[in-house]
Amino acid sequence: MDKVRLGIIGCGGIMNGFHAEHLKTFCDVEVVAVADPIESRRAEVAAKLGAKRQYVDHRALYEGEHELDAVYICVPPACHDGTEEPAIERGWSFLVEKPMTLCPDHADALNAAITKAGIVTQVGFQDRYLDATEMMIEQLKCMQVGMVYGYWVGGIPGVDWWRTQATSGGQVVEQNIHLVDMLRYLFGEPAVVYAAQGRGIITQEICPGYDVADYSSATITFQSGVVATLHTGCFIGDEGSGIRSGLTVIGRDQSMEYLLRDSLTIHAKKRQQYFGVRVNQGMLEDRAFIDAVKKHDPKAVRSPYCDAIKSLKLGFAINQSMESGLPVKL
Fold it and tell me: Could you check whether the bond before residue 99 is cis, i.e. omega within 30 degrees of 0?
C-alpha cells in the first residue's frame, strides 16, 4: 500500500502531544477520521492531522468507516469497552496505549482474537525503541547480573481518572508499567513477586477522590535468577526532590545506570562511559508500526500485544501482592 489509512480513537494528551506530532511528519500516512467525546480535542487533532471526518466516540467511528487499514487507540485504562474488538473483526491493525485494559480476562480474549486474525498490533512501550535500551541489551550479553533496582517517583498527573484505583489500575499498572516492561525486556520472564505499599502522605485535602498507594516497593525474582526491586511513588510535591526515574543494574564486574529516557552510564574497571539518549523513541515506535502495517508483518514491532500482555499481568501481580501481603507466583 502507498499510504496507511488511519483512524484515531482518543485525542487526549498522549495522542495530541505525542503520536500526532510523529504521524504528521509521515508522508505515507493518511488520517481519515478521529473520535473523541470532547469536541475541542477531536477538532484540534483533526486539524493537525488533516482528518476528513470526526466522530463523538469509537462506536460512531466504526459504524462510519469501512476502509481503514489501522487505528490508534489512546483512551484511559478503564475505557476499553469495544475499542479493539471491531478493529480485530475487520482485520484492521492497531496501536494501543498502555495499560491496554484493567481486566486480565479481557486481555486474554483480545490476545486470542488478535492471534487468530493475524493483524499487526503494537502496545505503547516506547522505551523498547531507545538506543539506551539497545546498549543495555548488548552489555548484558557479557554481564553476570546479580541484582537490579529501579524507581519511578514523582507527582500525581493532572487527570481525574488517574487518582483512583478503579479507573487507572494504580501507579504501577498505569505509569511504572514502563519500567515493569523494561525489566521483562532485559531479563526475561518473572517467577515470583512480593510487594508492599504505603499511604498517608497524600490526603483527601491535597487530592480529593484519591485512593491509590502513595508509594510501593516490589521485589521480582526472574526465572534467570536475577532479583529486581522496583520502587514506585507519586507523593512528590510541586518543587520535586531531585529524584530521577530509571534502573540500576549491578553485575559482578560492572554496573549500568539508566536514567529514564535521558542517558546510560556504564561503570567498569575503574572507568565509566556515558551515553546520552540520541533518538526519539516515540517516533521510532510509530514508524515501526506503520512499516509493519504496510508489510503485513506482525513480527516487525518490538511490543506486540502477545508480549505486552505479559508485562500487564506482571503489573497486576504486583497489585495483587500489595493488596494481599503475600508473594504471587507467575
Answer: yes
Domain 4-126+282-304: assigned CATH number: 3.40.50.720
- Fold (CATH) for 127-279+314-329: Dihydrodipicolinate Reductase; domain 2 (3.30.360)
In order along its 330 residues, the chain shows pLDDT tens digits of 889 999 999 999 999 999 999 999 999 999 999 999 999 999 999 999 999 999 999 999 999 999 999 999 999 999 999 999 999 999 999 999 999 999 999 999 999 999 999 999 999 999 999 999 999 999 999 999 999 999 999 999 989 999 999 999 999 999 999 999 999 999 999 999 999 999 999 999 999 999 999 999 999 999 999 999 999 999 998 656 667 899 999 999 999 999 999 999 999 988 999 999 999 999 999 999 999 999 999 999 999 999 999 999 999 999 999 999 999 999
Distance (Å, whole) CA 212 – CA 169:
8
Q: Which residues pair with 4 in a beta bridge?
A: 29
* Closest C-alpha among 230, 236, 178 to residue 206: 236
